[in-house]
Amino acid sequence: MRMIRQRENPVMWQAGALSLVVHGVFFLLLVMTFSWKTQPAMQVAEVELWDNLPVQKVTPPPAPPKPEPVVEPKPEPRPEPPPQPEPKAEIQVKAKPPVKARPEPEPKPKPKEEKPKPDPKVLAKKEEEKRLEELKRSMLAEDDAAQIQNQEVQQLAAAKNAQAQQAAALSGALDAAKARIVAKIKRYVNPQVCGTGKPVVDFGIALMPTGEVIGSPRLQKSSGIAACDQAVERAILQAQPLPIPKEPELFASFRDLSLKFRPNDNN
Amino acid sequence: MLKKALYCSLIFLTVVFGKAEAALDIEIVGGAAQQIPIAVVPFAQTVSQNDSLAAIISADLRRSGLFRALETRGVVNQPHELAEVKFSDWAALQAQALVIGKVEQQVNNRLKVSFRLLDVLKQSPLAGLEYDIAPSQLRMTAHKIADVIYEKMTGEKGVFATRITYIVKQGNRFQLQVADADGGNGQTVLSSTEPIISPSWSPDGTKLAYVSFEKKKPVVYVQSLVTGQRQVLANFKGNNSAPCWSPDGSRLAIVLTYAANSQIYLINADGTGLHQLSHSSAIDTEPEWSPDGKWVYFTSDRGGSPQIYRMSTLGGDAQRVTFEGSYNVSPHLSPDGKLLTFIRREAGRFRVAQQELSTGQVQLLSDSAQDESPSFAPNGRMILYATNINGRGVLSIVSADGRTRQRLSEAGGDVREPAWGPWMN
Question: Which of A187, B39, B182, B265 has the least C-beta neighbours within 10 A?
């Protein structure tokens, strides 16, 4: 009995420990993959959203006016999108990992293309209720549709305009972020040890969202002067944390930087 | 199972990260930093050792103009061993490099000095050495450590362990002295009640040529710094002055009034083979060899005002070198032969100037009024000269870019005619 118990216990204990470890590993993997997914997901989805966003903006306004009486179920999905200005990021995040999030983003792209169609559908239902006024209704509906289409065209144009403005704003923000990084690193670059020529030094760095360099800067092109290369590398490291943009859609562009130094040139 | 799971997650991660976009190009033109911030922690050393190595090293590095030696007293943890270093302390101080070390007493009254140079940002060692020395070599060892640090961080050879010579007048005595490049540890080579002038280093740094008036007239001597022995090099009729060694050490250029007016002559290092190089009716003096040995630069008033000329060591016509200003004297060439430093008088002030020989462009380096005898450090980064403060000659150093000027600590007295010695092998 004792013998058996003694053997059983250790076996049980080991098995328990193993299962705990395995569970722990899986839990860790789950957490890790989840948190990692979120960041890359932002970047990958960015491009897709780029096109989607403006169109989504178009849909909300037309919806409220007409559907109110008739079709409540359909408008509902649309009203949700209106908060889209923010969703840019959220949708991207959700797009991949959580299954729940998908239904929301997917419906959006389809409705956008079918926007004109929903109106006919509304009419169809109305026809069923009031068959006598079919013609009038249909006429009216067509008029409505025409008006709505007009509105949509205008809104689309406005959206495109907004998109262009947003793109300009983003590229402006990108340039501003670049300038901030240049200013901070430049503060620490010491041309004194780079000889009298016009050396060029290239370093590649990968950044954490905190602006810290991951690992060490990679020397991509040497100046031919070891002390100069090292001085530039020290400048990069001392400039940590780099002032990278907080906006996720901008940060994505700053994860990998190729830094080209011309320490002895003046601008 | 576990391995497989890890493997899968690894693949997943590489796939995810593999999707990263192309690197964003950022161009950084120029740089605002002029100095390398470095922290030199006081070495662990016993009280009986007077000189603080860290202080000497810091002062050396600072004097070069390329380093900013940081104040370390505010840091509580003062490491002497690698294991004691807390890099975050020094990163917080904005130091890029850290120097730690210690001096240990050994048997037979010798000292063991060890140091480490550390990269604060990469948290890695850059250099480390040990020296087994006599107590009297402590200062020179500090200079040698400063040289190692300088070379590691700038890629250029340091000059802190070189020596300088100068004349100091105290009371009515003239002393020819040799000191460390920071002006410390001065040793008297020759003492006389008559003036001593124009000391010049032999290229190997073992001998000095100078002019002494001890025979009531200027005579050129050569003295060994190793044995102390000296010999007369030139004691010809008239004045014998301004000796300057050729780069290979085989000959000297001197100035004699042998025939009539001051003219430049060449003479072998053993005192034989005298021949006249310059032939003018003007005063030609202060000869200075170019580093390639092909030219002798000198001061002459042949054009009406004192200017710097040069002529081939094989003879021939002299070429004028300085054109700006009405008074340019005391030429000395940089080790690479590209720069000329000299004294220019302008608006009654005598200042150290530097001319780029290829372009003729001149920059005034000093801001004082009575400067004299500029000479380049062996690495060309600094220029040593004497200036006059309150009626007294004082040693000063200016970086060749003119950015950093510093007075050297000196023992007192009136210091004149300094000359920076060569690297010693």
Answer: A187
Cis peptide before A241 (omega within 30 of 0): yes
Q: Are residues B136 and B251 in the same domain?
A: no
Structural domains of chain B, count: 2
Question: Which pLDDT tens digit goes with each residue over B311-353?
Answer: 999 999 999 999 999 999 999 999 999 999 999 999 999 999 9
Chain A: give the shortest CA distance to residue B15, in Å: 10
Q: Indicate if B285 and B390 belong to the same structural domain.
A: yes
Query: Would an 8 Å CB–CB cutoff place A50 in contact with chain B?
Result: no
A98 and chain B: CB distance < 8 Å anywhere?
no
**A chain contacts of residue B36, beta-carbon cutoff 8 Å:** 190, 193, 231
pTM: 0.72
Which residues does chain B have within 8 Å of residue A25's beta carbon, measured at their own beta carbons?
Answer: 2, 5-6
Q: What is the DSSP secondary structure assignment for residue B216, as one 8-state letter?
A: S
| Judgement on whether residues B95 and B18 belong to the same structural domain of the protein | no
Q: What would the two tokens of residue B309 be?
A: 């000329």
Same domain, B216 and B136: no
Cβ neighbours for B276, distance < 8 A, ≥ 6 positions apart: B259, B263, B264, B265
**Among A residues 216-255, those touching chain B with beta carbons less than 8 Å apart:** 216, 225-228, 230-231, 234-235, 237-238, 252-255
Domain that holds residue B143: 32-154
pLDDT at A150: 77
